[in-house]
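User:
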Amino acid sequence: MKKTSTQQHLLYCFVVAFVIGLIVVTLLAYMRSHTGQLAPIKSMKSWQHADAPLGHPLLDGSTPAFDPRFIQLSAFDRNLLPIATTMMQPMGSRHGALTYNAQPFWANNKQRGGYHTGDDINGIGGMDSDLGDPVFAAANGIVIYRGEPSHGWGNTLILAHRSADGDIHQLMYAHLQKSSVAVGELVAMGEKIGTVGNANGNYPAHLHLELRHTSGVWIGSGYVQEGTEHLNPDLVINKYSKKPTEMLNIAPLLSVKYDQLEKARANMMINNNAQ
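Assistant: Predicted structure:
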């Protein structure tokens, strides 16, 4: 009888220990999961910031600040880049646009702290005479960044393409008043992508144009001490520009986009008439 009582006692203790252990494991799992969900995010303001594509507007209509970490284009992104066999000046050709290069590439600006990383293209009248003037894509490309990385940069676009030699190039258009293309959009050479701005009133209106040989998406500074991946925009654009007699020829990619737009309008008219 005593042996049976001892066995029952041990069984009872085992069952109680098992139940207590199960409760403890469940509580630890819950606390661990709950703590992970509420862990502070150091690099982003919210989960929605973390999930939003680069330069993509958030649910509240704002655009997240540019994350300064070096972001590389994926293999898939690089495969989508169009080839730019020809290029043009982003504010019109030298034969038809009243513009000048107010601060050329690699000009030494000691007041700003180094060498200029791009070209400052300005209206011939200087100051804000070109404020709101159209800015055109200098080459076929895909929009890989759209946003305002800082108050001094203002509205900024980065379009990427492959050169005729197969190199990955990026054209950055900064200080825009407005931008009219979205992240991921395929843009044709000569297509309007925005208007000239003044970076929130920090400078007289002009377009800051940069050209880089890189697959990384970043903004950086407008002035550097040493040469990096920046290229001379004016030299490269002139190298791939059409001859003066061919400048009125429409870019093939732009022609395709116009055809798509006309078909969409025709379908819309058909649907409206059917209603």
